[in-house]
Amino acid sequence: MTERTERTGQTERAGQTERTGQAERIGEAERIGQTGERAGRSERAGRSGRPEVPPEGGGSGEAAHTHLLTISPPPSRPRPAERSEAHPLGAKRLWPRSFADRLTSPLPGVRAMARMAREGAMRPSAVALREEIPRLPFAPGPLPEPDADTLAVTWAGHASWVVRIGGLTVLTDPVWSRKILGTPARVTPVGVAWQDLPKIDAVVISHNHYDHLDAPTLKRLPRDTYLFVPAGLGDWCRRRGFTTVTELDWWEGAELPAPWGAKVRFDFVPAHHWSKRTLTDTCRSLWGGWVLTDRHGQRLYFAGDTGYGHWFSEIGRRYPGIDLALLPIGAYDPRWMLRPVHTDPEEAVLACQDVGARRMAPMHWSTFLLSGEPPLEPLRRVRAAWADAGRPREALWDLPVGASRVLE
């Protein structure tokens, strides 16, 4: 999430250093995205054209089909193909001044900003807003009771999940604020009231955009909460009083002690995205996703914010046996602008297949309206793409905001 302000600098292509001196206006929220074609894969054809499908699992004013569903995973558990040594928790590390060489597409320039302003295509139509917002799925329920063998998720909205793994409670990109800088207010409430949360053992952050790194929410946490963040973001967290901040580069991991003598491993993995929070910090911190693994090898992949690309197959190769992938399906229209940084629903299904995940839980939709697609379109399209891919319906965990699901 970026501020609505003049943006300096323009990274023209991966491997070059950030250029400075040319101001660029940034659009609302993270809608500025990146331009350029995605290498090696063209966009799936258009809209599905199917009639609107009511949200399964309950909508506004409807009961969810289930708040808590238990499914047993396959008995065989492949171990990681590659695994780095665990880094010490909370160590301060030195990082490059810029991570612009990690970009997989160039950042947008003045022409892209002008086109976006001219077309005004970053907001759904008034008709879509009026007809579809009341139907967005919202069905909060009780949180699962964890133990050392539980893997469970509760969707709080957008990219915020309450993950129970190995006896720990972990928040992903927690945003409990009603409104964040530069965006319209949330269109669905937070799925879990803050006072109903259990003790939070750890937080993982994917990158520093405002809809993923929310300072007011982090201020509500005890300062001894373990934070796992991308390389270059540690000082931001330490300035806010957090005492154990673990910064990781791509393919690095750390282990957090869990109850009953167990450990949960946190691995930071690449994403097709970028970072920026102020006028002067473009790509000064890294971006990515997280793979969490418990002592039994149960494994969850949280993608954060990402476009579609080659990193997914590499993640699947290095971390085989992913049980559940939390993948973004919204904030993708217009594609000419947002394709490099936000997967659309069809690309999310492809990403799930690339990482080899047994199940997929969609996210990054139905909360903050950051782009031009109708509010319910991501759900319709991901269900159609999932069916077209021949995946079992029960393996698509398209939860309402506030609902939970358990893997045992």
What does this structure look like?
This protein is an alpha/beta fold. The protein has one domain: Ribonuclease Z/Hydroxyacylglutathione hydrolase-like (Metallo-beta-lactamase, Chain A). The protein has eight helices and 16 strands. The strands form three sheets. An eight-stranded mixed sheet has the order 3-16-4-5-6-7-8-9. A six-stranded mixed sheet has the order 10-11-12-13-14-15, with helices on one face. Strand 12 and strand 13 form a beta hairpin. Helix 7 packs across helix 8. The radius of gyration is 20 Å and the shape is globular.
Write a concise keyword list for the protein shown above.
alpha/beta, Metallo-B-lactamas, RibonucZ/Hydroxyglut_hydro, Metallo-beta-lactamase, Chain A, six-stranded mixed beta sheet, MBL fold metallo-hydrolase, single chain
